[in-house]
Amino acid sequence: MFDQMASHFAQLWEAPWGTEALDEYWAHAARGRDRALNAASVANIYYDTDLARERMISLIKGAKRVWLLGNSLGSFFGGRNDLTDALRSFRGDLRVLVLHPLCAAAYDRAWREHRLNNPGAAADTYDLASHTAMRSSLYQDTLDAVEKAVQWRLAPQLRLQTAGSSFFLLLTDKAAVTETYVLAKLQEQGPLPPEGHGQDLAAAAQPGSAGQRILGDDLPKIEYLARPEPPDPGHADAPLAAAVQPDMARDPYGLLEMHYEFVWQQLSVKLPEPPIPDVHAWLQRSSASWLEERRSQCIQMAKAVDRATPAKE
Q1: Pairing label, strands 93-99, 158-161
Q2: C-alpha distances in angstroms, 268 versus 16, 119, 158, 274?
Q3: What domains are there in the chain, each with its CATH number?
């Protein structure tokens, strides 16, 4: 018993997750994780992608509302799997936001993925025409998502977001699961070659190739509870829970819900009524129409500012 207690103490003392050194606590504002996780209503954190997938399937199956936001959402539309089945079987308030593949954020992301698969590629070798004509993974995956949404009769529930998204989001009536997007990918073989160096990997980077690397699924997925219940006064942890209440003024679930609603209403493009004979051609037209609409809005805003600005004498 003594040896076991001594071992337990040593692990808490030496492990980086066990304790905070006093100098770090007082002089460097180190406070660990527990208080912040509770204040943010964090229920789960997943680094294991398979376990995260299982959790998302469970949340979808038990939900009345499912709102999805991401780039191409290939995990849901990329092929027949449990996530796809859960999405197609869902009957409730469904919304899906994927990135418009011709907006600036999509181009930047596609260029980054092209650069990952072609370390020696220069910026002037990749343009908007390459993005569409070469059918980048992002572009092709978005085409597939739109075509499958039409095929599955989900077109009214899918829109294309015209503002870049920096995170994935699954929002149900019980919880929100997020993953932050980054324009980076670590290689198992080592760091990326320096800019302008490295072998040409174009052959391995063709759509559908097993050698192609795409961004995402590397940072942990974080699950936030929706409007958490107050602690049970009779529970053993009630004093601690009462001392660290969720910060409802910065409630992550509420903020994510509000973000989604704004993008859905203000920064997205609806699909036309099915059938859509040529999704590629429609994307081109919708992109030109959206850009012209935004240009007109900017002009109107500039005129309003001019009218509101007093003239200089």
Answers
A1: parallel
A2: 44, 33, 10, 18
A3: 42-227+246-275 (3.30.870.10)
